Amino acid sequence: MNNLKITFAILIPLLIYACGDNKPAADTRTDTISHKAVADQANTSNKTILFFGDSLTAGYGLDDPSQAFPGVIKARIDSLKLPYNVVNAGVSGETSAGGLGWIDWILKQKIDVFILELGANDGLRGTPIPETISNLQSIIDKVKTRYPKAKIILAGMMVPPSMGNTYCIAFKNIFPGLAAKNHIQLIPFLLDGVAGDRKLNQADGIHPTATGAKLVADNVWHVLKNEL
């Protein structure tokens, strides 16, 4: 599959929508995870998988949060009777800077597997590459410092060619570069097989449908299953 062709076909509208939402106010981010959910994690012997991302993780536009790819992963884990709880910490419109701003709150709960899905909105806003790298690295550092044994998986993304070839290539290289530097696992392109397919995306041409989210979950599971 030609990823650049896919990106051109589906991600151009992202320049307008920026993953569907305006950036949320900082004091609303903690509402994405109920305090009861955090308490539930503390009251179980199961390990915790946490998805930390933007609208793709949050399941923007879907009828139920369980249809988002983290919810699909949860259903699969439950069906396999694996000892893991799944927490969806996706916030629509989130950036790497926004994620860095509230990661300390997220880390109040114990995390065993951390899936980092941020950066797409940075690219769509033309955020300088070094700034995005610094923010993502800081998030990774905080997870490693708080939970040294936690396994970290980074989800790769791309920006449309209209951002300029130099920026496009540099942005795409952020993710494998960080994965190699930190010796963490990489999902090369989160939307592989979904981006560019109208049948798998909502009317905005950006966010996966419930069917598309299942394929995104397959991309994640291909890497995640080896870390459980």
| Order of strands, widest sheet | 2-1-3-4-5
Instruction: Just give the CATH class.
Output: Alpha Beta
According to CATH, the homologous superfamily is SGNH hydrolase
Q: Under the CATH scheme, which architecture would be assigned? A: 3-Layer(aba) Sandwich
Overall residue-averaged pLDDT value: 87
Counting DSSP H or I runs of 4 or more residues, the number of helices is 10
The structural domain count equals 1
Please state the structural category.
alpha/beta
What does the model show?
This protein has 228 residues and is α/β, with parallel strands linked by helices. It has one domain: Rossmann fold (3-Layer(aba) Sandwich), CATH 3.40.50.1110. It is 45% helix and 12% strand. The chain has 10 helices and 5 strands, in the order H-H-H-E-H-H-E-H-E-H-H-E-H-E-H. The protein has a 5-stranded parallel sheet, sandwiched between helices. Helix 9 (165-182) links the parallel strand 4 (151-155) and strand 5. Helix 5 (69-79) crosses helix 10 (210-224) and helix 8 (129-146) runs parallel beside helix 9. The longest helix has 18 residues, at 129-146. It is globular. The model is unreliable at 1-18 and 22-27 (pLDDT under 50).
